[in-house]
Here is the input.
Amino acid sequence: MIMIGERINGMFKDIGKAVREHDPKPLQEWAVKQKEGGAHYLDVNTGPNSEDQTVDLPWMIKVVREVSDLPLAIDTTDYNAMEAALIEYGKPGAVINSIGCEQEKIDRVFPMAAKYQADVVCLCISKSGIPKSADERVALAMEFVANAEAYGLQPDNLFIDPIILPVNVAQEHASEALETIRQIKLLSNPAPLTTIGLSNVSQKTPHRPLLNRTFAVMAMAVGLDSAILDVNDDLLVDAIASARIILNKDIYCDSYPKVFRQR
Amino acid sequence: MALTGLDIFKQLPKTNCKDCGSPTCLAFAMALANGKASLDQCPHVSEAAKENLGAASAPPVRTVKVGVGEQEIVMGDETVLFRHDKTFYHETAVAVQVSDTLSGAELDAKIEKINGLVLERVGQKVAINLVAITNCSGNAATFKAAVEAVAAKAQFALLLVSEDVAALEAALPAVAAKKPLIYAATAENWEKVVALAKANNVPVVVKGNGLDDTAALVEKVAAQYKELVIDFGSRQQAKTLAEHVNARRLAIKKKFRPFGYPMLAWTSATDPKEEILEATTYVAKYASIVVVKADEKHHLLPLFAWRMNIYTDPQKPMAVKATIYEIGEVTPDSPVYICTNFALTYFAVEGEVSASKIPGYIVAVDTDGASVLTAWAAGKFVAEPIYEFVKDCGVLDKVNHNSIVIPGHVAIISGKLKEKSGYDVIVGPQEAAGIPAFAKARYPQLMK
Here is the structure.
């Protein structure tokens, strides 16, 4: 399970302020702290208050990389800012986060992914919104896979996100998202990777950590490969480590929760 | 591995006509991938697509058989790259070479020697599987005579080795009933050799030159005949290893049909010890046949043992034969140790009894290969079955005492066992590592 640390995001007040003032300290503290939590990637997002993402996003990349060698998930829908960030990143292995299933976005982003050897988070969401049924979501996933081939990307360069909505207001979506993940793993060989914005499942509920970790293990059982999540939620990471053991993904040892965080 | 949705979708007409009952071709493809629909439900799918999908759902490595009756060898039908993922199914066949330059008494002696290459290991018969008659003479008539002489006497399946079409044509018909494997169809001769194989209904080795060349050749041959074994043609260990690994990966992971056949490897080392080491690599890495020159039992036994170990099923516990084992020079005074027939348990006890320097009998009770505590928990290593086994195996007829030593972990059964059997039941140490100290303290008079 690839854990993408969600915390360096301008939606959080401390990061939003740091981005406006170009103060590297909060970003760098969270980079270190999330690595300690076991993050495999760090998500980087300017937040909505950035005046110019083409300036702020590369700056964020630069200061995070000063303290961390983890690969980054570059989180924006401004694809000029994305390209500037990829140039600043300057090596293969970044993740472009994200695109929806619209041909013009695919045509803009897939060539960029191929050029900078980056992977792409693909959201199962189309111009007409978020589909409800698993079948409709899988159809969008297939669009991405078919397009990837045309642009020289492999299916496993894609992190397909079936989209999860909060269970308090969109309860019927979660089970459809789980079925989508299961089917995406049957789409192609190699199969596309799957990811999820985990914390979304519990927005505005009083049981966030409980819902997050319960959904994480359920999604892993149907083939979830990665998630954008709170890596400093210890109970969540313990649950993920345990699910990996139960799924025979990691070899058991008595100290597996600790070992999982060290990888 | 099952077909993916994308594989199926690519073969569908993409009409989204709903005639199959699914809303779109993609939904239908996913239903097929999930096993919820059958291809016949689509009236518009082409014959070519049906054939492609049928072939793609065939097993990744084709089953090919050589020989008849007891000499039959089944090759291929493997599904994993690592035995711990499931198991390897069909043991590598060992072929020993005989040159057709031998004749008369020399040849008879060689055949007799080869027929003797049958050994016993842990209660099982292990042997070579094929005699490879090589056309070293370069003469078709000589080859035919040698093949017939070997076929008449050898107790193993045959591998006819000649790239000369005339030699194979001369030798094959008389021995075709024994279903030999013929070697080899090459880029130069394949049309004739494959026609010969087809006419006589025998499998044939396709010999290429490296991965690309062999794939191209197999593709041409497979259009006409599918009873094939592949030889990549290289005679260097590292290169052969790499080719085997790549080919088997492609066959299993990517369903690459040209490599979906059993593979044959030749050893190239001249020293028999090095040759056996080389052969162990091929046994571990996917060869269905390995052809060697070594024909001495002491060279071949390690290769047989290795093959047996690699091809055991890792999901099943390794068991030793349930019987009496004599460790060292036993006398009627020697102690009798009781353990289970789980290989790990037995060998742990055997090692320690041997290290104690006090000869002893070990009775490996039949527990279906379960360990002491597992068998105890399952009721297979308790008073009644132990008593029955010890009584039936007759170990106490060999000694002048009436005592048996049981594992310390099952001390709890000692009372009932004593009552049941009337034996003097001695509770030994919990771990086999304690046996030397236990034996020295208990039987000082037997120390050597």
Q: What stands out?
A: Chain B has three domains: 5-54, 64-311, 323-446.
